[in-house]
Design brief:
- By secondary structure, the protein is an alpha+beta fold.
- Among the domains are: 170 residues, no CATH class; 36 residues, no CATH class; 70 residues, no CATH class.
- Helices cover 45% and strands 19% of the residues.
- The strands form six sheets. Strands 6, 7, 8, 9, 10 and 11 form a six-stranded antiparallel beta sheet that branches.
- It is flat, with a radius of gyration of 35 Å.
Length: 475
């Protein structure tokens, strides 16, 4: 079992690891906190010293492209209304829907968001009050994988910590859980103080499962037999979707904010005055602001100068950066206008990069879900005495995109006309290919089961049989 000093050391080492550092940057950008917010202006004074310039405008605006790209990927991946965990066995499908329904999908959304922003995400399993396994999201920043080679007892652990609440005087209460294959131990910590056993937990350490029977006294414990934390990686290096586009987003922020600063700094006109009759500069400034009147001598003059900011080059640069952000971020740019010919083919082409990104993620997501399905199937078999296997279940994602209604109507019309041509062709050939063959062909075209129809005793179906045979005979 890990000691308190080992737990603290492992948590602190994990916090400063390169993987968590990069993941934290991804989460920060997803929340709209870009590097531009820390941007400062400097200049060298007459003594050659570097001084922060606090007189010039320093507008700081984050442009959350990354937030949109992550939400696009997650929502597009899970956009289908039907369950993505399926089985051709009706009884099993009903049970799977209970495990992998809307509640599970909402937790999976959070995990996928972590995967896109940080490069990896977690879910963990627990037994609910009905003794059924449920899977919920675990914050990836608080999960520490402890491999066997890092411990003295050659055992594997998972440390999970999170900030439970903040008390008065801004004291943070941290909860720490140490999981192994048979039990979990709970700890508590106030700010950076001593890590102690959590006294609010009545059983500590406790088995994975604690349950009681109505007809028996006391509580009973059991082990899941595994550490109930499951990790989904974005790729082998566990890098986030931010990596290829961070520099582009930073450049967009700099160019856009630079233009805003220039507009702010030169928003007022410059007054060039010749032959001013007053005594001092303050009088001149006051006259221009208040009385809008300036006295000059016979040779004097007033000229108002304005500066034209060369914004065209900046606008072109912003457009280039925006296009590249969506291109290399492999997302759908909803701001694209095109030539007005928005057909389904054009719409599908705009989703091509997003489809490619989701296809790559889907491969790893399916492998991740199979691990969860194995646990669910084992539980179903144990509780129901069934023998379901992993081969009885398949995973299918149906992604939905917006379509052109006119195109859809035309497609349906073409299908109906094609169906009518096929039926007419079959009926015209009835005299040459035989009545039974014609009936089978028509049933196939209409997607009906020929054997079920012909063997049915229902009166309405018999009438339909007779009518169909009369139609064939007429032809």
């Amino acid at each position: 079992m890990l000691t308190i000093d080992e737990i603290k050391s492992l948590i602190n080492s994990d916090k400063v690891s390169e993987k968590k550092r990069l993941a934290q940057i991804g989460k920060r950008y997803y929340e709209g906190s870009h590097d531009i917010l820390n941007y400062r202006l400097y200049y060298y004074n007459s003594d050659g010293k570097l001084i922060e310039d606090k007189t010039r405008s320093n507008i700081k605006i984050s442009h959350p492209f990354f937030t949109e790209l992550v939400d696009q990927c997650v929502q597009y991946m899970l956009s289908g209304e039907e369950s993505f965990v399926k089985s051709d066995i009706p009884d099993l499908q009903g049970i799977l829907d209970a495990y992998f329904g809307d509640d599970f999908k909402s937790e999976l959304v959070e995990t996928l968001t972590d995967v896109c922003t940080g490069g990896f995400g977690y879910m963990y399993a627990y037994k609910n009050s009905y003794e059924r396994t449920e899977f919920i999201y675990a914050d990836s920043m608080g999960v520490v994988d402890v491999k066997e080679k890092y411990t003295d007892d050659n055992s594997e652990y998972v440390i999970y910590w999170y900030i439970d609440r903040t008390e008065k005087d801004n004291k943070k209460i941290k909860r720490v859980q140490v999981w192994d294959k048979s039990k979990v131990t709970y700890y508590a910590q106030v700010d950076d103080g001593e890590l102690t056993l959590d006294k609010s937990e009545p059983i500590n350490p406790r088995p994975h499962i604690v349950y009681s029977r109505d007809d028996e006294e006391g509580k009973y414990g059991d082990s899941l037999g595994y550490i109930p934390f499951f990790r989904l990686d974005n790729n082998r290096k566990q890098s986030s979707h931010l990596k290829p586009i961070k520099a582009l987003i930073d450049d967009y922020d700099m160019v856009s904010c630079g233009l805003s600063n220039n507009l702010q700094d030169v928003s007022e006109a410059f007054f060039v005055v010749k032959g001013f009759q007053g005594d001092n500069l303050e009088e001149l400034i006051n006259n221009t602001r208040v009385t809008k009147h300036i006295g000059v001598d016979t040779d004097g003059d007033l000229d108002i100068k304005t500066i034209d900011i060369p914004y065209q080059a900046r606008q072109i640069k912003l457009d280039i950066d925006e296009n590249n952000i969506y291109r290399f971020g492999m997302g759908f740019n909803s701001a694209q206008v095109g030539d007005g010919n928005i057909t389904n083919v054009v719409i599908r082409s705009r989703y091509a990069l997003l489809d490619l990104k989701c296809n790559k993620l889907e491969i790893r997501l399916k492998a991740f879900l199979r691990e969860l399905i194995k646990i669910v199937l084992q539980e179903i078999n144990d509780m129901s005495g069934t023998g379901y296997k992993l081969e009885d279940v398949y995973i299918e994602f149906t992604r939905e995109i917006m379509t052109n209604a006119t195109d859809n109507a035309q497609i349906e019309k073409t299908k109906a006309e094609t169906q009518q041509i096929k039926l007419n062709t079959v009926l015209n050939a009835a005299a040459h290919i035989g009545q039974e063959t014609v009936l089978k062909t028509i049933a196939e075209l209409l997607e009906l089961d020929y054997d079920d129809i012909m063997s049915s005793n229902d009166d309405e179906i018999k009438n339909a049989q007779s009518l169909l045979q009369e139609v064939v005979a007429v032809e």
